[in-house]
Design goal:
alpha/beta; TIM Barrel
Length: 306
């Protein structure tokens, strides 16, 4: 199937009132799990690749993702997640990505707008969509640590100014989520009303980063298999549903796949201490990730939309 841009996939979601998952991939097994789940549930999907994943794989993950995306029977966009420079965005565009994120949310608003506009002008000339971010999330991949009070929620006024000035196709907003497995204490508070306020004034499809649910049962299995993950808490499924109902279109998930795959590997190695074949060790990880992704696609409402 022909690759889709991020805007293509998310505009359809916006019209249809469902969400599309953007799942982070670092390797072949994760990429296959994402595509497997998308085809099983008939869901559109975005393969999300960070600058770190590109560096780790010596850029090979880009080729893997593009090959699998082109062969998929459902709509797939290949997306740069949290691109930190104009240069990495341009590399991805030249390499065939159909969506890029330029993340200058840690800069002042004027700088964020200016640097985002530079990427937008270049990307639009070749039909690639651009995501940007306004506000600050908590977590390991952001300037603010989860729960430390320094995360900055996006306001509707900021969102309007930013989209008008930067011209981005899709907009990531901060509404209380966080990157990593420790998103707060108890049930993290998500500013559902704020999503509706922003959606009422901004036409660009909205994006939720840091949306892993960190299922307690999988964390319990991880710890039982010799892992050590304390204080792990994610975003409640009901909050995800409400966010989509208020206008959220793209939901980013990475941590859930890491917990699922590492849990499956730990369990397999413990029960097969003599196994040395990496294919056999990684096969349960791929299956566990696909299971988690399928459930997430049903939650987002994208199942059957591809």
């Amino acid at each position: 199937m022909t690759l889709h841009t991020g805007l293509d996939v998310l505009s359809a979601a916006q019209r249809g009132g469902y969400g599309v998952g953007a799942f982070n991939t670092d390797n072949l097994e994760t990429t296959l799990a994402i595509i497997d789940a998308a085809e099983t549930t008939r869901s559109p999907v975005m393969l999300a690749i960070t600058s770190g994943a590109l560096s780790y794989s010596k850029n090979r993950i880009a080729d893997i993702a593009l090959i699998e995306a082109r062969q998929a029977s459902v709509p797939v966009a290949v997306h740069l997640d949290h691109g930190d420079s104009f240069e990495v965005c341009m590399w991805c565009i030249r390499h065939g990505f159909t969506s890029v994120m330029i993340d200058k949310s840690h800069e002042d608003e004027a700088t964020n707008i200016r640097q985002t506009r530079r990427v937008v002008d270049a990307a639009r000339a070749v039909g690639v969509s651009v995501e940007a971010e306004i506000g600050k999330l908590g977590g390991i991949d952001a300037a603010a640590e989860a729960g430390d009070g320094s995360a900055q929620l996006t306001t509707a006024d900021e969102a309007v100014r930013f989209v008008e000035g930067a011209g981005c196709d899709t907009l990531a907003i901060a509404v209380g989520t966080a990157h990593g497995p420790n998103k707060g204490i108890g049930r993290p508070h998500i500013a559902i009303e704020r999503i509706g306020e922003i959606r009422a004034r901004v036409d660009a499809p909205l994006v939720m980063h840091g949306a892993s649910s960190v299922p307690a049962d999988v964390v319990e299995r991880f710890n039982a298999a010799g892992g050590h993950l304390e204080g792990a808490v994610g975003i409640h499924d009901d909050d995800i549903r409400q966010a989509i109902g208020r206008g959220m279109c793209k939901v980013n998930v990475g941590t859930d796949l890491r917990i699922a795959s590492s849990t499956a590997i730990r369990e397999f190695v413990r029960s097969h201490p003599g196994e040395i074949d990496m294919r056999k060790i990684l096969k349960p990880a791929r299956a566990e990730m696909a299971r988690v992704i399928e459930a997430k696609m049903v939650l987002l409402g994208s199942a059957g939309k591809g």
